[in-house]
Every structure is written in C-alpha cells, then in structure tokens.
Amino acid sequence: MKKETKMKPFNLIVTGYGGQGILTLADIIAKAALKQRYDVKEAELHGLAQRSGSLECHIRFGKSIYSPLVTRGRADLIIALDASEALRACYWANKKTKVLTNSKIFRSSSKLKQVLSKIKKFTKNLHLVDADSIVKKETKDITMVNMFMLGYAIKKRLLPLKKKLVWQAIEERINKKFLKENKKIFEKAFKSR
Amino acid sequence: MELLNKKRGFLFGNEAIVRGALESGIGFASAYPGTPASEIGDTFAKISKTEKIYFEYSTNEKVALEAAAGAAFSNVKALVSFKHYGLNVALDSLLPIVYLECPLVVAVADDPSCFSSVQTEQDSRWFSKLGHIPTLEPSDSQETKDMTKFAFQLAYKYKIPVIVRLTTRVCYSKSLVNFNKTIKGKTKGKFKKSWFKLGSYQTVERHKKLLKKINKIKQLAENSTLNFIEKGKGNIGIITTGPAYNYVKETEQELKIKLPLLKIGFSYPFPEKKVKTFLKNLKLKSVIVVEELDPVIENEVKKLADKNIKIYGKNLFPETEELKPEYVLASISTILKKSLPDELVENIKKFKSSEIPARLPLFCAGCPHRSTFYAIKKVLGKKKIFGGDIGCYMLGAFPPYEMYDFVVSMGASIGVSHGIAKSSNEKPVIFIGDSTFFHAGIPALLNLVYNKSNALVVILDNRLTAMTGQQPHPGTGWTGTGELTKIIAIENIAKACKVNFVKISNVWNFNQLCKDVKEAYNSKGVSVLIAKGECRLFAVKQLAKAGRDWPRFEIIKQNPKLNELAGFQCPAIKKEKGKWIIDKNLCWGCTICKQLFPDYIKVKKK
Predict the structure, then answer these.
(1) CA distance A167 to B203
(2) Pairing verdict, β B173-178 and B8-12
(3) Are A45 and B116 in contact (CB under 8 A)?
(4) How far is the alpha carbon of B76 from chain A, nearest alpha carbon, in Å?
(5) Residue B308's CB: how many other CB atoms inside 10 A?
(6) Considering the domain B227-349, what is its CATH architecture?
(7) Are B176 and A121 a contacting pair at CB < 8 A?
C-alpha cells in the first residue's frame, strides 16, 4: 500500500461521554484516514463507558505511526461532543490546537461560560457549535450528534480528510436502515455556518 | 467483518489474537469475559459458526482453562482467554497443566491503570516464572497476530502451554494487520489414553523434565527474531517490551535520535545471552529499561550487566499505572540532557486535572440495579455492613448510594461476609450478580449454610454478564454461540443449598421489592433474595432492533418531595432552573420514578 509521505503525524482526540457514539465516530475517522493511505493507529477504552462516564479516543495518522496515544500537549485537533469533556481533553492541548466542541454540558456542575474561558487558556482556536439543538431540530433526538460534528470538522477544514472518503467510511460502518438519516445530518453540517 | 478480510484488516489487539488463532488452525476456544480481554471471547463467539470452530463462555476462568486443556490433550488446537485476575482463578489448574505436556495457548490481558479493574493492578509476567510458562509480549495488533501464531507453534513443538500477555493498550488499540491464509482446524481429535502415574516422586520427575524443556526453549528465545536489536548511536541503550516500545520509537522521532535498542518480545525464558551481547558488543555505559508495571525485565538485566553499566528503570518510570508517551519522552530526554518540547512543558504548567470535575459513572437509565439499591437504602438504611462483588452493581459504591464496604474478588462478597457475621453481631447484606454467583458464589453460599451463618444474599439477576458486554451465562438459556441450552435457575441452586429463605423479587414492582427486602432481611439465618430484572440497556437495544418503542415519562407537577430524586440518580432525570425534568431522549421507560411519585410523574403522551 502506498502511503502519503508529506505530513507529520496528525494527532486527534475525540471525546464525550458514554452513549454519544464516540467509538463509532472514532472508527469512521480512522477508516477514512486509512482510505487516504495514511498509517493509522487508534486507541480507546471499553468498560463502564456506556454508563455515562468520560470517554476519549486517540487517533493518529501520518507517514509512520508507532504510539496509539497522543503525547501530552501535542494534539492538532480535539473534537468534543460535550464541552466539559473538551476541557478535560486539554491535557493534550497546546496554543495551536484546534478545539471543536458541542456547546452542551451533560450532568456536570460546570457552566459553559467558565468551561470555555478555561479552554481559552490553552488555545484561542476554539470552534463552538450547538450541535444538540441543530440535530434535535432535524431528527427529534440527539443520537446523531456525532455525525454532525464529523461533518462540521471537515467543512471547517479542521480535520484534513476528504469528504468523499469519510462518507465511504460512514457507508461501510453505519447500519443501512439508518444511513439516510445519517447522511441528512452529515450534509446538514456542510450547510451550517 | 474486518477480521475475515483476505489481505489485511484494521484490528484491535483482541481481534488480532483471534486472527492469529485462525491462521494456526484453532479448533477450540474458551473464555470467561473480563475487560480488557472480553472481546477476545466475543470475537470468537461471532465467527465460530462460519469458521467452524468450537467456542464457549465457560462458568469461570478455571473451568475455561481446564476445558481448553482437555481439547489440547485431545489434539485439538485450543486457546483460552481472560483478564489478569482471571489468571489468578485459573492458576490452580494452569500450574499442574504445565507439567503435563499440554500444548495450549493462554491469552491474558493485564490492566495497568486499572481502567476496567478493581481488584489488583498486577503484572502477570511473574506467573511465567512461577509456573515455567513460555511468554510472549506483543506491542501492537500485527505483533499480536504474529505472536499468537508463534505461540501455537511453540506449544505444539514442546508440548507446553504458552502465554500471550497483552496489556490494555494492546487490547484496545487498532492498527493495520497483514493477513496470511487461515487454516481450517479440526474440532475433533483423539485423547490418547495412558496410565497416569501418580505419586510425589512422579511429580518431582515431571518438574525435572519441565526444567529441561525450559532450558531448550531458552535457546530458542536467545535466537528468536521476536527479540531483536536495532542499531543506533552512542553508549546509552534501551531495552524495552510491549507497548512501551512504541513510546520509545515516538521519543526517537521527536528528539531526532536513534539509540541502540533491544526489543524483547519473547520474555520467558529470558534471553540472557542476547542481553549480554547487546550490552557488550555495543559498549554501552548505561541502559534504560522501559516496561510497564513491575521491573521484571529490569531485574533480569541488573543480574546480567557489569557493575560499571548504569541501569535505569523504575527509578525513572512509575511502577503503577500504564506508561504514557510523555513519560517516556520526558525520562529519555532527561538522561540524554535534551530539552522537552515547548508544548509539553507549557501543558504541564497549565493543566491541573484537579480543577476539572470528575464524571462519575452512573447506573444506566432504567437499570434494574438502581431499583434494587434504592429499595435496600430505603428499607434497611445505609448503616448495615454491605459486602460488594464485581459487576455493574459496583456503581452502588458511588454517590449517592455509597453502599459498599468492601470488594475483594469474584464471589468474595459472600465469603468475607460470612467471616464478619461469625465474628460480630452484624447481619451483612451481600450484593452479588447472576454471572458472578455462577462464577464463584456457589461454594461460598454453601459455606454460609453449612456453617450456620447469618446474612442476606441479594443476587442481582439482570439475566446477563452485563458489564463486560452482555455475554450469556448458565442462567440465560443460551450458549456463547447463541444455541439454546438448559436454564439453570438461581433459586433452585439456593434451595438445593438448603437456604432457609429464597425469594424472587421483580425489581420493576418497587413496593413489592421493598416488602421482599424487609422480609428477607428479617428472616433468620441465611436468606437469598433474587432481585430479578433484565439489563435495560440490553432490553432497549432489542426493542430498537425490532423497530419498537418504549414508554417515556414526564413530570406533570413540581413538588418539594421530588427532591428525593437526587438520591435516586437517574441520568434521564435532572433539575434545571429549580424544576425537575425528565429528558425523553434518555428515558428508557423503567417506570420506577413513576412508582415513587405517582402524583407527579406520568407516562408521556405521544
């Protein structure tokens, strides 16, 4: 397999809480990166995550990847489906790190404003989107927030992967029954500002 | 399925084990689920029918190992898998099996950082030495597949069990694995009948023979390509193993250096000559040993190295918790007197984990265990002695329940509570799950009755081994491969154990559950209350699959009484701007909140 040779490893953290479809999202991104002919490693944890605990996945892609884990302070991008989890993931942030976060905070005493100002201490490159509301408007629930965030990350060129390949990865991963709905949400992200 | 691709697949370590087994002609696999190793069994369960191999979830790890050994004795290629303290359970049989010419592959997953473990953070590599069991330590999925194949070859050539030792990061990181052809294994062989020569003399003879065998295998480890040297510059060398190797390689890329490196993949019997050659030929002045958990390799290297070589190891790296790339980067940078990347230094200054509120795990919405814990808290209060066990119900140890006084190991809730009951005037309340009861609870329950104890055993029967991924067990009526089988009813076991009071309580009927808790506790001696209610996560998934919905609930009237819901703690119920609300997206329709507050909570109309 021919591999892309240009770039340094791209370090991505995908985070949220158990039940948000974080593992599916990470799997799709990793597969799309493979399709783009990168060397890819992905790390995640299983266990109590279904029970609303914090969940983080590491995805690294580039010419040659050894560690599946991102080194502290070296993330290029953090995609968070929950704002308080975006802050927790700042363990991997530096001042150039791009943080894309959903504006919702689930079951936490923290307030969004405080959380965002804390994230800004690490990086000013913050992208906030009210994915829960947008997705709820379209589908009446929030199960596809992961799909919206993925589309948004590509649209904003935060994630250096080709839309076509990402969509291929989605098609291979998502149950056919729900594919149409997923496509709607994924595309919705490209139409949003 | 990725695993059954022709050329390559993007696999977890846990899946790579299975691919390696398929390429070796496996015929028999057994497991007891335990994270981080759970998906090894789950993957076998998924592919066993199409690949025509035998798979079972056994009742516990010891039984799983014995079953696999029986298959191996019958000349069917066999693999058993479990997590690190599953090996503790199986050890009683594993050690003698090593004496008995048994070609078996044992996959064991350690869990540094205890991401999914509460008992211990142990390093299984000590068992290799204790039992004289050849051991391989892969770093990623490709190595996991390759080493599994090599483990089968080794096991068959020398008629000995071989351990493939994984750690959490190997189990749960995915990378591309190149495949070879799978080999159709046979599932039926022949057990060679022979007179078993019993006696202490015979055991000692077998021990002698084993040591000779290990000596031969040692030569193999010395020359194995799994233990390889990478050339580099300078007189500071690295010896590393497992996932730590990846962090060393990242460090080299980061610091733009290339150090002399010895990677140990075949770690028992320890390749002493190779280490000596590495130290001498490269004229090393110091060596950094990078390994997770205990200094197993470091101790070996210290024995072999000349006095003038400085050995770094656990004086640089933690003995607890998994290694992280930044630990390795920082330590090697210090020794080489190189400065750390600015981003890392800056982050260490800024990031304080104590400033970020922890997100404690909760019972799922609609979890049957919440109903049980809430009922017991309500009826018995929180002052009783609570003996805890291992399963999803461990969440009852967290606020707002905090109803756990100890956890030891599978089944120990009953065993330890018995000692407490005998040595005090307390009647302990025991929490043990259905799968855990079958695993190790039964002998302890027998002991309670036989030795005239005093305790309430609450068996939280959610009809699955839920925590590790909803695997079946002897109470469910189906096997690991989905075949129907006999249902072994917990109440019948309890009755056969001559427990005075045995009752099944439906957890979805809250008032009756409370009455049953009271009756069971007040009954003299040993009582067993089976709190029965299906894992809601499982039930909801089944409903969704079938395209069916479930009722959602809503709060129709606010009342100060609803503040009690804080102590109920359902993820779907929250207080916003002074008002209690139920999030319909999260409500899984268990009905308990409505039963608690029938005047204020109703079914939501569509």
Answers:
(1) 62
(2) antiparallel
(3) yes
(4) 32
(5) 7
(6) 3-Layer(aba) Sandwich (3.40)
(7) no
What is the CATH number assigned to the segment(s) B368-541?
A: 3.40.50.970
In CATH terms, the fold of domain B549-603 is Alpha-Beta Plaits (3.30.70)
Homologous superfamily of the B2-223 domain (CATH): Thiamin diphosphate (ThDP)-binding fold, Pyr/PP domains (3.40.50.970)
The tokens describing B57, both together, are 């979830």
- CB spacing of B344 vs A74 below 8 angstroms: yes
Of A17, A69, A93, the CB nearest to B347: A93
**Per the CB < 8 Å rule, is B246 touching A66?**
yes
Chain B closest CA to A51's CA: distance in Å? 5
Q: Give me the interface pTM, i.e. the ipTM.
A: 0.94
**pLDDT tens digits along B254-265:** 999 999 999 999
User: Nearest residue on chain A to B328, judged by CA atoms?
Assistant: A71
- Is residue B212 within 8 Å of residue B44, measured between CB atoms? no
Chain A nearest C-alpha distance from B34 (Å): 9
Q: Which two tokens stand for residue A46?
A: 């299983």
Alpha helices (H) in B351-472, listed in sequence order: 368-380, 412-422, 434-436, 442-450
Contacts of A53 by beta carbon, 8 Å cutoff, 6+ apart? A17, A18, B359, B360, B361, B362
Cβ-count burial B355-391 (b if 16+ within 10 Å, e if not):
ebeebebbbbbbbbbbbbbbbbbbbbeeebbbbbbbb
Q: Which of B250, B395, B571 sits opposite A67 (nearest CB)?
A: B250
* CA–CA dist A122, A94 (Å, integer): 6
The model's pLDDT over B131-177, given as tens digits with 9 standing for 90+, comes to: 999 999 999 999 999 999 999 999 999 999 999 999 999 999 999 99
Q: Please indicate whether, in this complex, the C-beta atoms of A46 and B344 are within 8 angstroms of each other.
A: no
A192: left (phi over 0), alpha (psi -120 to 50) or beta: beta
Looking at chain A, how many residues does it have? 193
In this structure, of A6-15, B86-95, B213-222, the range with the lowest mean pLDDT score is A6-15
Bridge-based pairing of strands A39-43 and B173-178 is antiparallel
Q: How many Cβ pairs closer than 8 A exist between chain A and B?
A: 150
| Fold match between domain B368-541 and domain B549-603 | no
pTM of the model: 0.96
